[in-house]
Write a sequence for this structure.
């Protein structure tokens, strides 16, 4: 069975600081990888996804993630965070060709103005 | 993208009672998913609801506890039966995108059982 671990439960940063949120998954086959974000009071929404090709994926709002197959990782990065990035971030994985998503426990990001 | 609404948005219930959560999508979809997010935990898939057939439940979830209806291609309900405080969670429905690559999520129903 697949599993996803997110390294940090709560991250607190000042505006303009750089962000990296860790995500590791366990599954030996071909996977599709996702980062979802939930802003306060809003729906869970897709931030970015990786299916194949360039392992560096760019998403909305300046976020990017790098798939490192040898490390089973898909870390989320942003060079300079803003207060509006305050949200909860979820890493998810699914087996290629299936529809079932397996989520990590989420990382709450608080950005201090 | 699909627009999904859920009712109720939140509720406080007494143990032993049941609550039915509604999920409405603005487009026709074959599959709908129900998830649970317990406090401090990840989203866990409860079941997949296909129109015209019985829902498929994941390990650890049973139909008697979480009966699901799927009367048409835009609507589904999840009932949490005979509730206990351990059922206090956020319940979310989701639908796949057109390419079956990812999912769109509803706003969730926040349930507190006393």
């Amino acid at each position: 069975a697949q599993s996803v671990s997110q390294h940090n439960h709560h991250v607190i940063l000042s505006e303009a600081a750089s962000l990296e949120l860790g995500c590791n998954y366990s599954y030996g086959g071909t996977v599709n990888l996702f980062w979802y974000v939930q802003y306060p009071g809003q729906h869970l929404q897709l931030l970015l996804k990786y299916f194949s090709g360039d392992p560096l994926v760019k998403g909305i709002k300046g976020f990017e993630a790098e798939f490192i197959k040898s490390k089973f990782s898909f870390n989320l990065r942003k060079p300079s965070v803003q207060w509006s990035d305050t949200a909860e971030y979820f890493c998810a994985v699914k087996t290629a060709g299936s529809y079932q998503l397996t989520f990590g426990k989420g990382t709450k990001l608080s950005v201090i103005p | 993208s699909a627009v999904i609404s859920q009712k109720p948005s939140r509720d406080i219930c007494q143990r032993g009672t049941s609550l039915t959560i509604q999920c409405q999508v603005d487009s026709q979809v074959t599959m709908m998913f129900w998830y649970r997010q317990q406090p401090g935990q990840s989203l866990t898939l409860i079941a997949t609801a296909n129109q015209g057939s019985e829902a498929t439940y994941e390990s650890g979830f049973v139909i008697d506890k979480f009966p699901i209806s799927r009367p048409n291609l835009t609507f589904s309900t999840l009932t949490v039966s005979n509730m206990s405080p351990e059922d206090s969670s956020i319940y979310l429905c989701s639908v796949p995108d057109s390419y079956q690559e990812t999912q769109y999520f509803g706003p969730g129903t926040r349930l507190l059982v006393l």
Summary: Chain B has no helices and eleven strands. The mean pLDDT of chain B is 94.
